[in-house]
């Protein structure tokens, strides 16, 4: 079968798929046959980047938060992701459920107990195992799982959703760079961006699947008492997850992914409610209030803190936790960002940003409080340090924690179900996103393609587990996140350019001459529209149309005892002056205004303004400094009507006491 024949049977973009698969295969083989060399190479690279670019990670993530909040509060927030009349594809509850499941579901299960306990026994600045350490543990946990993490996802998601649904571009990373690269997004630069996003997504999801399978096997061993720690068990679990993910992905977003996400959210709420009720309820409710207040009080400091003034061990903590988190979220941004873009068509930008930043983050805060603070309380009041002692085995820590609550077997089984479904939703949504990148956003791709990518994710995760290459890949995450952070900054620039163009389209009004035009002399009007006026054309218009109209009005005013005159200041400029005692006089002027023709218009022979680098317009001006307008299409009678309209406005303001202050002010020159 030739490549051309295969292309007709798939939606693959081969300049993206072939290099991506070659890179994935090369890194996979290198990790399998040279695991120690791979780990050493990426560990050295990680150490170098964290030493010299930690400040950049902190700064860029803070910029993403400020950027999104600024857009949400601006006039751009009302723009819809799609046509102005677009309606959301999914109901609000389903949308939130899918955000939650795809974004951080697996991580919440893995780190909800593990991270607060590890910060308790090794806090960045507080004394170990003290109330201050507990408070700081929850503060930094909130910081790592709060709005900063979702801002990383939100930047990519908003850029893709905006250009995908508003500009009708493919739903791929390259489309977010359209304002910068223009048509080059269809060439090698665009292919390179998508190759990078595709490889990053495959390895990011595969790494998470690998760590998740280890937690799942630890949970099964803990609950059943059997040993599920063998590599054969891990591979079997991966195979099971991939099969379920394939079935879900084949059914589409509207069915499999949506249903699994809603079920998962309900199960998560059920498990959280159980821990809240069975655990120290009053302590947890009070802790939630304090955690929120502490987070809001320190959010600005946390956003820009990089431990420059703290001891070396604090800086090491910062690099091992905060920088790793930021890099991890950035590496997941193409996947999660594209997925939330896919499910957000029809929502306004403001609704998108508020929904993505605040709602999942608030749920994360509640989840981390219930599990994290409950674990800290149990460790200090019941277990007497047993959870702290087991903190090194994060895979099984959640299940060890549940043993201290009633109905441990039932709650552990529920947790296992949650972890499994989280894996499936991450894998199936990941397969769909990867297929979307590989197909350049083409709709109706064959089902087998999504199944193929689900299989690729399983194979990569299995190979890395077998070869012990997950640590190397974790280090690679920090390395790969650095250039993609730069790409995300470019996405911000491109989004601002796109929103600015969108606003200009919305604000663009019809020509002032359209207020008077009745459709008569339409052929003459069309000829004027298609003509690029020169300076001589404007001079002729002033002499043949503007000046006669002004002189007629000036003469009529003089006949009625009103001092008026027409002043031809130059070939480029003429004005009608009506003098008033003790008040600013009325001036209606027309001047030849020069404008540069954009380069793209000069290069486009279809556009009328494409012959010369400059065009000229007869533009009005007034004594009160108001913005003028182009009058080149007006006839003499229409000029008469426009002058009288402005003069009538001037007289109405002169008789208005509230406007007297400006009317007595000197005229603009």
UniProtKB/TrEMBL annotation:
Report keywords, A-Z: Cell membrane, Membrane, Transmembrane, Transmembrane helix, Transport
Compartments where found: Cell membrane
Q: What is its main location?
A: membrane
Q: Does the keyword Plastid apply?
A: no
Protein's UniProt keywords contain Transmembrane helix: yes
Q: How does it sit in the membrane?
A: Multi-pass membrane protein
TM regions (residue ranges): 12-34, 54-74, 95-113, 145-165, 192-214, 234-253, 265-286, 323-341, 353-378, 404-424, 451-470, 476-499
Query: Which GO terms of the molecular function aspect are on file?
Result: transmembrane transporter activity
**Which GO CC annotations does the UniProt entry carry?**
plasma membrane
Instruction: Spell out the Pfam families in the cross-references.
Output: BCCT
Family (UniProt)? Belongs to the BCCT transporter (TC 2.A.15) family.
NCBIfam families registered for this protein in UniProt: bcct
Q: What is this protein called?
A: BCCT family transporter
